[in-house]
From TrEMBL:
It comes from Prunus dulcis. One of its GO terms (molecular function) is DNA binding. Transmembrane segments: none annotated. It holds the Pfam family Myb_DNA-binding. Residues 34-62, 63-113 form the Myb-like domain. It comes from the Eukaryota. Gene3D superfamilies: Homeodomain-like (1.10.10.60). This is Uncharacterized protein. GO terms for cellular component: nucleus. It is found in: Nucleus. Residues 30-62, 63-117 form the HTH myb-type domain.
Length: 122
């Protein structure tokens, strides 16, 4: 059984890290339960997470259409430009970047682009 941190107990009763493929297979229950029944997902997948935690993990990390590679220079430019126009409305900015979530864009802005933007005077 998986716990919240992505670890499980093996046959020798030792805690081992579960690889991402196994974690993904557990979340395949989303396909069976649908995205409107998040309380059923952890129960059916054998997870100790709550439904809200499963929903956020799916939304921000596990959905198949998410981009996991680095942001491109074009995406950087678009984020900086949109932030200058509409401010920190991350969900609106994320809708302009297919495969990116509002959380992903916000975190990228706060860790990388904010300082870069301030240095360039934007």
């Amino acid at each position: 059984m998986l716990n919240q941190s992505g670890f499980a107990w093996n046959d020798e009763n030792k805690c081992v890290e579960v690889d991402s493929d196994e974690m993904w297979n557990a979340y395949a229950e989303v396909e069976a339960c649908g995205t409107c029944n998040w309380t059923a997902v952890p129960k059916k997948a054998g997870l100790t997470r709550c439904g809200k935690s499963c929903r956020l993990r799916w939304t921000n990390y596990l959905r198949p259409n998410l981009k996991h590679e680095s942001f491109t220079p074009h995406e950087d430019e678009l984020i900086v430009r949109l932030h200058a126009i509409i401010g920190s409305r991350w969900s609106i900015i994320a809708h302009q970047l297919p495969g990116r979530t509002d959380n992903n864009v916000k975190n990228y802005w706060n860790t990388k682009l904010k300082k870069k933007s301030l240095r360039n005077g934007n």
